[in-house]
From TrEMBL:
This is Deoxyribose-phosphate aldolase. It catalyses: 2-deoxy-D-ribose 5-phosphate = D-glyceraldehyde 3-phosphate + acetaldehyde. Its EC number is 4.1.2.4. GO terms for molecular function: deoxyribose-phosphate aldolase activity. SUPFAM superfamilies: Aldolase (SSF51569). Signal peptide: none annotated. Gene3D superfamilies: Aldolase class I (3.20.20.70). Belongs to the DeoC/FbaB aldolase family. DeoC type 2 subfamily. Pathway: Carbohydrate degradation; 2-deoxy-D-ribose 1-phosphate degradation; D-glyceraldehyde 3-phosphate and acetaldehyde from 2-deoxy-alpha-D-ribose 1-phosphate: step 2/2. PANTHER family: DEOXYRIBOSE-PHOSPHATE ALDOLASE (PTHR10889:SF3). Pfam families: DeoC. One of its GO terms (cellular component) is cytoplasm. Keywords: Lyase, Schiff base.
Amino acid sequence: MPDTAFASDTAASNASLRAYLHGLPGVDEVGAKARAADLGTRSIKTTAKRQAIDLAVRMVDLTTLEGSDSPGKVRALCAKAAHPDPADPSAPQVAAVCVYSDLVAVAVEALAGTGVGVASVATAFPSGRAPLEAKLADTRRAVADGANEIDMVIDRGAFLAGDYRKVHEEIAAVKEACAGTHLKVILETGELATYDNVRRASWLAMGAGADFIKTSTGKVSPAATLPVTLIMLEAVRDHRARTGRQVGVKPAGGIRTTKDAVKYLVMVNEVAGDDWLDPAWFRLGASSLLNDLLMQRTKLTTGSYPGPDYYTLD
């Protein structure tokens, strides 16, 4: 069921949703960029770097979302997710593998007994442009095949046209179709044009029942950025203060290096608090990040970087 963040349900009028969302405090764009830049300069002590790297690994949603995806490619990705560094059994597993809905059953079988989750992009990813019936059918299939999480995309056209009720109703309907499976709602912030819209879309998604709010599909530029993630972290922090319900955040797309990942971890701690420093509440959507994390991890252990071909390419 949607929560009561703005005293609405799926029958809420568009006028009431608009009044609520446009009544949120405006975002100081200059201030948000400046604070994100400042947080991005923070460093962590060498003694804490290993802990931060391992935490980042555990937060990764290892992703393959290409038209060329095959069962073999998904099985290989699942093997890496469960054992990121076969030469080092102490290397932690990632949080989940994220695939298209028709490959969920392959991933579920490959990851059985590992504890690694299976996420599926559904609802006409990445455009979100399909009838609601098709989106719900896609979601139900992924859940029936064993997905632990659904990553849906909002209808950005409806949102930008001010049809907040349609977006709210679609999120609530997909949440119901999830039948208890966690729902991550992708805002595609690169298409929302303003930081105010990012804040509004965040609150709209949370009010409709999202368990996570996610920046991007990774198919639109810009994808995840520190200022946008800052705004979303403020939103989940304030939402919990207002409603008592905690919602996760997932920046996705363009996060490629350990240095990038650490910047996001610092931001989570400084903006939302350490309650969110857990894979249950913060994820990193990435395909190339994991290899850099593993390289940095090996460097801390051995004093030297492994060769470029040491880890598989995803």
